[in-house]
């Protein structure tokens, strides 16, 4: 790992230290909840954490860009862009389910490069640099091999985020894998990087939901793409498939492509 990558990893961990203090405090306080235009939740803690992280980044690396969930984009044309989700899993945070955390990603030339995933309620922190290394609580991790879809443990954050045709494709993959777990938010991506699960299929996620996890998974030997097999970018949301095993990823992609049908783009509740 080169010195600059190591420097930014250390700074990402410093940001995670800062966010953990704020999020731990918020978890013990009364949660005031608002709904955004897309009906997702936001709290005072979301805004306070992002404001704190943005301030630290702007003072330390003023030439870098920032893309955050609550305060939007700044200088996205920069070579290096920090990609922030102050509370990933805001609904679990509100409900007190301990899979919420802060995602701190770094994009270089528009692709995931560095990631920090921090979960105060469980004391877990994943760090990674794409294609280089990944760790959980300071211990090196690797994804695990998988014999095929029939042996795979899959996760999905929430099928309510899927369009009708996407849900039909998810159903086909769900029927092919050994078992599917729901509702772990980005914590599931850390578990995939740690070799505890094999596959993750999600839709409706934005760059700040996936850039940090993608860097960690890549650092652990896994792969994250959209459903066409293309790299994820800072652009519009796309369906995501992540796997710890390249052959398993290829099998999942083939099934997703074959299963997607032309259908309504209406989001439906299930």
Give a description of the structure.
GO terms for molecular function: metal ion binding; phosphatase activity. Keywords: Hydrolase, Magnesium, Metal-binding. Belongs to the inositol monophosphatase superfamily. By secondary structure, the chain is α+β, with helices and mostly antiparallel strands. β3 and β4 form a beta hairpin. The C terminus is likely disordered.
- Structural domain tally: 2
Structural class: alpha+beta
Classified by CATH, the class of the largest domain is Alpha Beta
Biggest sheet details? 8 strands, mixed
Spans where pLDDT lies below 50 across 5 or more residues? 262-270
CATH superfamily of the largest domain: Fructose-1,6-Bisphosphatase, subunit A, domain 1
Determine the CATH topology of the largest domain.
Answer: Fructose-1,6-Bisphosphatase, Chain A, domain 1
Task: Quickly count the helices.
Answer: 7
Evaluate the radius of gyration.
17 Å
* Global mean pLDDT: 92
Q: What order do the strands of the largest sheet run in, or round the barrel if closed?
A: 4-3-5-6-7-8-9-10
Measured between the Cα atoms of the first and last residue, the distance is 45 Å
Number of strands: 15
Keywords: Hydrolase, Magnesium, Metal-binding
Binding site for Mg(2+): 69, 85, 87-88, 209
Cofactor: Mg(2+)
GO molecular function: metal ion binding; phosphatase activity
Which structural traits does this protein have?
single chain, 270 residues, alpha+beta, Fructose-1,6-Bisphosphatase, Chain A, domain 1, D-Maltodextrin-Binding Protein, domain 2, 2 domains, 7 helices, 35% helix, 26% strand, disordered C terminus
